[in-house]
Amino acid sequence: MKYDENRALLATEIPGLTSPQRGKVRDVYDLGDKLLFVATDRISAFDCVMPNGIPDKGKVLTQLSLFWFDFFADTPNHLITADVDDFPPTLAAAKDDLRDRAMLVKKLRIVPVECVVRGYLAGSGWKEYQQQGTVCGTPLRAGYANCERLDQPIFTPTTKESSGHDMPISFAELSDKVGADLAQQLQDMALDLYLQAADYALTRDIIIADTKFEFGLDENGVLTLADEVLTPDSSRFWPAASYQPGQNPPSLDKQFVRDWLDGVGFNHQPPAPKLPADVVTQTREKYLTALEQLRA
Question: In this model, does residue 164 exceed pLDDT 70?
């Protein structure tokens, strides 16, 4: 295992297994009939991985995803187990490092799109709305303020790129890409999951402004929830108590890191600068707060 000086787990190597496929945050091991997902403490922003990580971040992503998989009990998901004592013997040597941050999951035929749902007008959506009155090409009524709640959540899918930026696609383009029936299923399921989660989160004093889901098809063709779910990496979380339309609220997600990077003039191109200790500490606190409040 590779740790940085802050004891953030940046990379995994498990004896006896071939090197994993490394994403921006996850290391994924192919175990033949299943996959091992390991959430490291790496953090990315503007599609750049930071040189140092956020201690315990991978555990927060995993534990929140497990919470939501249980919350959405009626929705099929890819989880087999997150109990390291039930992992195959080949993983025994890494058990302590994998605890709380790893999941054994089913192999799925992943649908190659990001299913983004927006309930509030923020970030790049707000910038586009100011210029064109649209968000990812979807027309909105006039008169919205920055960070205002939308009359209805909107589904704004994007491509799923292995590197670089995901690009918005229209529902018609999504239908052409995956088929009309599956496109409708993706939209319906993503909107339904977001509404359930957003209503629940408000009871825990958190606003879920937007999020993205990933889905796959199992061996029987059943649409299945995959990857991470409603985490501070995949969502925009705001404290409800400090929310006011027209203002950017404080975040409980990685927007804090994005704001710091913009504040130091980062050009959004690698290599990214090292995060200072106070930014690391505050980001960790935000992630833990989101986990604690949502699971309360």
Answer: no
155 and 223 belong to one structural domain:
yes
User: 14 in a domain, yes or no?
Assistant: yes
CATH value at residue 197: 3.30.470.20
**Mean pLDDT, the chain, as a whole number?**
96
> What is the Cα–Cα distance from 37 to 166, expressed in whole angstroms?
22
pLDDT band, residue 11 (cuts 50/70/90) = very high
Residue 60 shares a structural domain with residue 118: no
**Would you say residue 274 lies in a domain?**
no
Q: What percent of the chain is modeled with pLDDT above 90? A: 97
Domain shared by 19 and 150, yes or no: no
Contacts of 80 (CB under 8 A, 6+ apart): 34, 103, 104, 105, 106
Angstrom distances, CA of residue 13 to CA of 19, 22, 86, 103, 106 = 6, 11, 20, 16, 21
CA distance 29 to 234: 21
Token pair 């409603």 is found at 230
> Which residue segment(s) compose the domain that 49 sits in?
2-107
Q: Is the peptide bond before 76 cis (omega within 30 degrees of 0)?
A: no
What is the distance, to the nearest Å, from the Cα of residue 109 to the centroid of all Cα atoms in its chain?
19
Average pLDDT of 92-111? 97
